[in-house]
Amino acid sequence: MDANKKVAPASRLYTHTILDSKEEQEVRYEKVAANLINLIGGKSDKEINDTLMLATGKDTKTHEDICLGFLVLILTESENAAKHYRNLTLVVRDGFQYVIHELTKLISEKY
Questions:
Q1: Could you tell me the maximum CA-CA distance found in the chain, to the nearest angstrom?
Q2: Is the pTM of the predicted complex or chain greater than 0.70?
């Protein structure tokens, strides 16, 4: 096996033992992060801004999913956290209340 290859862990937010199974919330976190990466991947900053504005303007659920996706990416991709936070501040409409609520839920349920 090549020493330079990185093996992606099964979960990006949680550490599991062999007996643990994925919870519904963890699956949701992975799904919204993957959807967000597909939405903004490979685009310039201006294209990302335009795409995010169009996507968050659709409905409340899409807005919440994008905000949650950015939260997950901030927590899991430390090298791009500043960029993701900048994009999150661009799209957030509720003064970070949803993000803080999800972060509080994540902490209280797991720790």
A1: 48
A2: yes
The Cα angle at residue 87 between residues 75 and 6, in degrees rounded to 5: 40
Q: Which two tokens stand for residue 79?
A: 């090298």
Per-residue pLDDT of the chain (111 residues), as tens digits, is 444 444 334 456 666 566 566 678 888 999 999 999 999 988 999 999 999 999 998 899 999 999 999 999 999 999 999 999 999 999 998 889 999 999 999 888 877
Using alpha carbons only, give the angle 8, 40, 73 rounded to the nearest 5 degrees. Answer: 45
Can you say whether the dihedral through the CA atoms of 5, 9, 13, 17 is positive or negative?
A: negative
Residue with structure tokens 């997950």?
72
